[in-house]
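Reproducibility note. Readers wishing to regenerate the assembly model reported in the main text can use the exact inputs given here. Chain order matters: entities are listed in the order in which they were concatenated for prediction.
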Amino acid sequence: MNKLKVGIIGAGRIGQVHAKSITYHIPQAEILAVSDIYVEGAKKLAEELGIPNYYEDYHEILNNPEIDAVLVCSSTDTHADITIEAAKAGKHIFCEKPVDLTVDKIKAVIDAVNKAGVKLQIGFNRRYDHNFAQIKDLANKGKIGNLQTIKITSRDPEPPPISYVKVSGGIFLDMTVHDFDMARFIGGEVEEVYVNAAVLVNPVIGEAGDVDTALVSLKFKNGAIGVIDNCRRAAYGYDQRLEVFGSNGQASASNDTPTNVEFIDENGAVTDKPLYFFLERYMESFTKEMNEFIDCVLNDKETKTTVYDGLEALRMGLAAKKSLAEHRPVKLSEIEQ
Amino acid sequence: MNKLKVGIIGAGRIGQVHAKSITYHIPQAEILAVSDIYVEGAKKLAEELGIPNYYEDYHEILNNPEIDAVLVCSSTDTHADITIEAAKAGKHIFCEKPVDLTVDKIKAVIDAVNKAGVKLQIGFNRRYDHNFAQIKDLANKGKIGNLQTIKITSRDPEPPPISYVKVSGGIFLDMTVHDFDMARFIGGEVEEVYVNAAVLVNPVIGEAGDVDTALVSLKFKNGAIGVIDNCRRAAYGYDQRLEVFGSNGQASASNDTPTNVEFIDENGAVTDKPLYFFLERYMESFTKEMNEFIDCVLNDKETKTTVYDGLEALRMGLAAKKSLAEHRPVKLSEIEQ
Amino acid sequence: MNKLKVGIIGAGRIGQVHAKSITYHIPQAEILAVSDIYVEGAKKLAEELGIPNYYEDYHEILNNPEIDAVLVCSSTDTHADITIEAAKAGKHIFCEKPVDLTVDKIKAVIDAVNKAGVKLQIGFNRRYDHNFAQIKDLANKGKIGNLQTIKITSRDPEPPPISYVKVSGGIFLDMTVHDFDMARFIGGEVEEVYVNAAVLVNPVIGEAGDVDTALVSLKFKNGAIGVIDNCRRAAYGYDQRLEVFGSNGQASASNDTPTNVEFIDENGAVTDKPLYFFLERYMESFTKEMNEFIDCVLNDKETKTTVYDGLEALRMGLAAKKSLAEHRPVKLSEIEQ
Amino acid sequence: MNKLKVGIIGAGRIGQVHAKSITYHIPQAEILAVSDIYVEGAKKLAEELGIPNYYEDYHEILNNPEIDAVLVCSSTDTHADITIEAAKAGKHIFCEKPVDLTVDKIKAVIDAVNKAGVKLQIGFNRRYDHNFAQIKDLANKGKIGNLQTIKITSRDPEPPPISYVKVSGGIFLDMTVHDFDMARFIGGEVEEVYVNAAVLVNPVIGEAGDVDTALVSLKFKNGAIGVIDNCRRAAYGYDQRLEVFGSNGQASASNDTPTNVEFIDENGAVTDKPLYFFLERYMESFTKEMNEFIDCVLNDKETKTTVYDGLEALRMGLAAKKSLAEHRPVKLSEIEQ
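Running the prediction on these inputs yields the following structure tokens for the assembly.
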């Protein structure tokens, strides 16, 4: 078999996840090199997985003519620039989300990729989750009927460090962005966003100009409505659920748990909390998205999770920020396209 | 035992429910008379339950000095006037919701009741439901912690006749009113309402000036936020759920079902749809609210579900209508108090 | 309507249950009299429910020509004799289980009833339970297919007083008898019984010659197999479940609970224990069986839960005792018919 | 790190599972060689996983002084002989179950292993399943209390080929053997076995001298009782559950499913069937058992799942066969030790 040759830029948490997916579960691809500005991290990962090369400078990956595709797993502020460089170098690209926090930069990425004629897939892994993919499948088959209401529950077990909150673009760009994509994945394009939010977890988050608890109302272009329930901290762990109501029925996904054991005594019946945290909960989905990317490149298929999806999720996030600031519903058309 | 003597005004569906609760389950009370403008209905109910008197004119009940308390179960447009008359006649009153569709009328009721010094309980029966009462109890005990987010799901199996929609005041006054009360029951006073709604079930409802699918965002005075999910038609039946999130944990109530049987074959595992409809789902709660009313009168306790609750639920409904009309969040303070 | 006139013999716990079912839920019948050797109990029940007559001596009920049917709710040792007397008096009879602890006595009952041509229904109320009746219905419709394995879980929350264990005939006659009837209800006639049992709850039960924890294996005549899981004490309450496996699928009933509320915090997700105890768990089934009895008498239908069912459940119990004593499988044909 | 050098004897289904566990998930070990009498299978596996050597003759593995440990994944009839040879060659051994179908052979294995002083772990992977391990943990912690009743449900989705049934030793040696081990894992040593069984799935199985549906009653030495529910074919798939009742409470494990999605429409609420089949259901447990074996060898710990466990599970199977043949309870002491 002619294996796809891959380079990984960024050996942090998510870079390691993708490296292991390819090494252990995707025989159609092999990793030729990994880079990280913290080169010890690249070295460690290379040794653990038997990757033949590791570098400090990602240009060594871009300049390697043997490498067909790169995974951009570096810090968010570098995603767009590296992706543009990679496109110019003729590499197919898997880029972690968010692509960027500005519409302009994402449009520059789109231009570069189109010009180079390379493939680009964005890391909205939750589309590949077993539960959510099954709901999408039920919707596609018409089992749910015409969509009425979409309800997404997405609550983290702990807030990120306040230093992260200050640079991430805030809850709507760093956390809800996944849910915005899920909303579009299930319900299609969104027309309007309204935010009802508060600071209930930690006042320091409020002092940093952000909120930590939010209900984001959505109007879809097809007429359906939706709501996303976010919180930076759920006492019981990582809460990831979805309910979709339509004219024919309702599909819902409850949380995954470590076991299916129930213990019952005089105090009641106890079952597990949800899986903690996203690496456990979504591990399988990371492998599936990578598998799809490799397949698209090897077999010259269109990628399904595109930079346009990244752009629209960003625009929803920007609309949410505007809604919060101006305390009114905001149309997506008010946000730069 | 000195039984409380009760008269029932209105022998329709809900009048029958209360009559049976008292006859079968509340030995502390007995029904002396029932009235209905459709006197055959009153006669039939009297015969079935062994009630000694039935009338066409409810004044015969109000004028009977033996009767201590009346249940106002007539049509909505008569609730306020009959309640005021009953108060003047010195009767304790259980009045079905909604008390009225205007703030002025409800304030007149409050005045009359205060002047007469009689007790008045409003029929927000869902407060007495086993599931929701248990969640309230968990909240009271501090198990949930500081409230963050309240999510109410309340979907009817079928829309009411369009003739009803035209006079009921619309979905927010005839259907969501229960959920507004539930929101206040769990989360306390509400400061602001925002409506995201659509006509997705039946365009005739839209032509009548109403919506049939809605997500109502709430801001509570204590800082918590909430959302009510309503639909006039759920293909799978009557969907009545509640989720309450707080700093310590989450309490949720799933639907009641006819049985706990699961059947599994090669097509999957099948369980029951929710109980259909409110008479089945909430039957126990109707008995419990009536029991509390009888107890309050007999033992001179304050009623817990008051006309003030009726007023505030109405004001939330009016705020929701205004939000829909003006496409913006509406503060409760904008609504006449 | 020509109401059926009923007399109740025995005003204890189960007599009260049936009296309330008829008074509150079965308008086709009325109770003319209640008797109890503890006459104060009869008086109290009569006053509470407005029953016009109460007696110490049940013969006053049997001798009342106005009474069409009697409910035999007295102590077990009197069931057979009173039923025979009632049959001779021409009354239709509802008799609580067990009819008797000996085959001979039950056969005498059968003779008397046949000779008198009156109807006799036995109080195996669990056949009328919503969960188990639905499983029976699934079986009848062929959804489960050819029966393979039937598993009954039936665990009490607390053992009865040791004085009761000594006279009840032991666990297989006072407790498992319900499960033997359920096994026959679902699986048909039984051919062989094998008992695997122990004293694990309370050694005093063992000293009284009984066991408190048992697994009773069953072979059905149709070739299917089954097992009954009994325990005198389940720490978590009253455990009443059923699983039926067939060539097409499996139907199972889980426990009923007071609410459908889940509370989840850092310690896990907690739901309710089962309903405690049989009066709560099976209340609805008591009303349904009584309704069927009244209907059979009024409309001259065959009763469906017959003295033959009582006889066979007894014989299974006797076979179980023999299996335990002789430590071997025992055929039903070894037990007097 | 000094990696453990492993050879795998047998490149069939289970050999591949272990090879992938080590390659992908156990960095502490590496596979030096794989053998299979069907050498093409060994070659294919070696190429897929980058194993440097493959052989037809397993002696090349035993003779390789670099190899520390071997996995015996060949056909059942060769397990004992190869294990004895491997012990003589000084290799640590992981041997798939069953070790053998005779007590004598297993005792010869025990002797050889003891003499050689090598480690031997048996492949009872279900002990490492997330659900069952959690129940064991609850039992160890005393949460369940003194054991009363253990119920194991173990139903296959399809019967094996009839050719396999004829040589496997029958259902109690090829299928129930897992459940016998689970019973001992949870409940300790067993004293007596009684079989209630039938041919309900396929008469050809009966003609081959076996049964296909069974309830196996167990008496444990500690006084607890138990039952195993087996069937060669469950219409709804692979049914693997466990319930453990004790003086303090009950722990139960329900089936694992592909997703946690529920779809509800007018026909009811549908959820997934169990995971199909053991490679999906127990995949994680195969990795965990292998991890434990590697750890025991590397760190000179005692293996926890021993050949003695294999012997006792076999003896329970032989007792079950005897019970079926002689239609009586059979004590383990009647079976050769």
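We highlight two features of this model. The CA atoms of residues 144 and 249 of chain B lie 5 Å apart. Chain B has a mean pLDDT of 97.
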